Each structure stands twice: as C-alpha cells, then as structure tokens.
TrEMBL record:
Pfam family name, one: Carb_anhydrase
Matching PANTHER family: CARBONIC ANHYDRASE (PTHR18952)
Protein name per Swiss-Prot or TrEMBL: Carbonic anhydrase
Keyword Nuclease: no
Organism expressing this protein natively: Sinanodonta woodiana
Function description: Reversible hydration of carbon dioxide.
Length: 333
C-alpha cells in the first residue's frame, strides 16, 4: 500500500511538473523581442520558419513591380461598414496593440483582390517607430513610414484562424502605411483606450466602429506578393496586399502609440512598445505584382500622397497640352 501510494504521488508530481514545465516552455517560447539576443536576427533559432525563403516584410521596388490589372481587381469588402453583431477587444500583447474581432452574424470578410476565396477578418494591429522616419515593416523604394497597420484575414475554407495559420493559402493581410499629417478622428476610437491597457496581457472591450472608417478612400492600387507572418513563428502563409494610398495621422496620436503602452507586465521596469518592426527580408525567387501602374513613389509621396499624385498628373497633362498647342501653331518642330 505504501509503495503504491508513493507511486501514485510520483505520478501526480510528474504530471504536475510536466504541466509546469510545459507552461514554462510555452512562456519561454514566446520570449522573442525586436532587439538584442532574442531579436529578429536570431528568431530562426527558436522558430525555424523565420529562416525561410519567402519571408516578410520586404522592400518594394516600384519599378520592378509587374502590373496585372486583370488579376488584381479591386477588393470587395463585406461587413466593413457594419457595427452590428460585432464586438471588438483591444489588447496589449507586449509586442503591439491589437484589436480582436468577434462576429456573431455574417463574418466581416474580403473577396476579389485576386484572392481565390473569401477571407474572414480575425484581427488588426500596428507596427510603429520611435521616430517618424521609421516604424513601417514594408518600405517603398527605400522610404519607410512612421507606422503600418495589418488587417489579418483567414481563408474561409479552413475551420478557423488557428487551422489556417500555417497553410500556404491560409491568410490574407491588408497592409496600410501611415504618414504624419492631420489629426485622424477615427483612430482615437482605439487610442483613447490605451490608458486601460498600459501593460502586457491587459485587454479591454471597446465600442464597435465601422472598420472602413480607418482605411484610405481609394483601395484600388496595391502591391501583391506571397510572404509570411512578420513575427514568430513566421509561417509562410500570407498573401500580402500593401496599398498605395497612405493613412494620415497626427504626430500627437503617433506619440500615444509610442509612449502609453508598454511591453512589460505591471510592476516591471517600464519599457515602451516602440520600433516593433521586423527589418526587410530577402525577396529571393519572388516577384512583386501590382494592381495598376504606380503613380506614387518616394519622391512624389510625402505628407499627402493624393495631392502629390494629382499634382504630378496635372503637370504631365499640362506639358502634353502645351506640346500639342505648340505643334498646332508650328512654333516648334
Ligand atoms: Zn503585423
């Protein structure tokens, strides 16, 4: 009886230890950072997929992007305008601030955009820099932006996000680049709750808003390539769409991202979440496609991409008209 009891205790202790170790391992497995020993250069040691050949983000070179407007048609957003049957939870996960969506009715989803299926929204989150000159994960012709937003969708052919996560066609992420400009009312719906999630693993329910309000007006122009999650475990399961038109946000609002949410637990040394971007990865064998000719580039895009683009277009039209008139009146040629 005594031995049997001891044996039982041994089994119990073993199971408890296993559970504890497993939990410890689980936590340790999440210990990656954006700098130092556990930084991006070493992610592949703990997460082998991070050393793959189709990783994200990448540098987008506009003159190498292949235009394919027959394939890359405009997206159709479904439920992006609705606020019904939808709840939003804002969380600080120590790496970013993330809004998780739970839908009880028809899913919020995207189709079109060259995708072969319906993709359902799961969450959106941000990457930002300590300074305006950096923060985005993708760059356009070497130009970085102060922030980038990722709206993560999963392929509806899979049961849920977790099942889709590591499948080749599992995820579609819409990426939006930000520029410093005027105050953006829509983002205050998120920012005003930062004081409720100052530390890692804190979360709060927020009042629902229409996601379409966050996006630029024109979504027709975008780059397309196949890549990966930009954080461990870096699965190469993402169809990326990076939009030409940027989102304007004020310096003050960017500062709320930079200084009011921290990567640590309560009672630990405070360290702001900032510079939470992965450096560009090798393009390797991949090609970048785009939905229409790229009008904007790093020279024409600055504080207000649309104005610059319009100005460029107007200038080209004016010069063409002038040459035509000169020819007409035989002033030259
Ligand atoms: Zn991201």
């Amino acid at each position: 009886m005594k031995i049997s009891f001891c044996k039982k205790m041994f089994y119990v202790i073993t199971v408890v230890l296993f559970v504890c170790l497993d939990d410890t391992y689980g936590s340790a497995g999440n210990l990656w950072t954006y700098d130092g020993e556990k930084g991006p250069d070493n992610w592949h040691l703990d997460y082998p997929h991070c050393g793959g050949v189709s990783q994200s983000p990448i540098s987008i070179k506009t003159d190498e992007a292949i235009v394919d407007s027959a394939w890359l048609v405009p997206f159709i957003l479904k439920g992006y305008d609705t606020m019904q049957n939808l709840t939003m939870k804002l969380a600080n996960n120590g790496h970013t601030v993330q809004v998780d969506l739970t839908v009880t009715g028809d899913p919020v989803s995207i189709t079109g955009g060259g995708l072969t299926n319906v993709y359902i929204v799961q969450q959106f989150h941000f990457h930002w820099g300590k300074e305006d000159k950096r923060g985005s994960e993708h760059d356009i012709d070497g130009k970085y932006f102060p922030m980038e937003m990722h709206i993560v969708h999963y392929n509806s052919k899979y049961k849920n996000f977790t099942e889709a996560l590591n499948k080749d066609d599992g995820l579609a992420v819409l990426g939006f680049l930000f520029e410093v400009g005027k105050y953006n009312l829509h983002f205050d719906r998120i920012i005003k709750h930062f004081s409720e999630i100052p530390y890692k693993d804190e979360h709060t329910d927020i009042e629902t808003f229409a996601m379409r309000d966050l996006l630029p007006e024109n979504l027709d122009g975008y780059y397309r390539y196949h890549g990966s999650l930009t954080t461990p475990p870096c699965y190469e399961s993402v169809t990326w769409s990076i939009f030409y038109q940027t989102i304007e946000i004020s310096e003050y609002q960017l500062d709320q991202f930079r200084h009011t949410v921290h990567e640590n637990y309560i009672n630990e040394t405070i360290r702001d979440i900032s510079d939470d971007y992965r450096p560009p990865q090798c393009l390797n064998h991949r090609k970048i496609h785009c939905s229409k000719p790229v009008v904007l580039n790093s020279k024409t895009t600055n504080r207000n991409g649309r104005t610059s683009a319009s100005a460029t277009l107007v200038s080209v039209t004016a010069i063409t008209s002038l040459i035509f008139l000169m020819k007409l009146f035989r002033i030259v040629f």
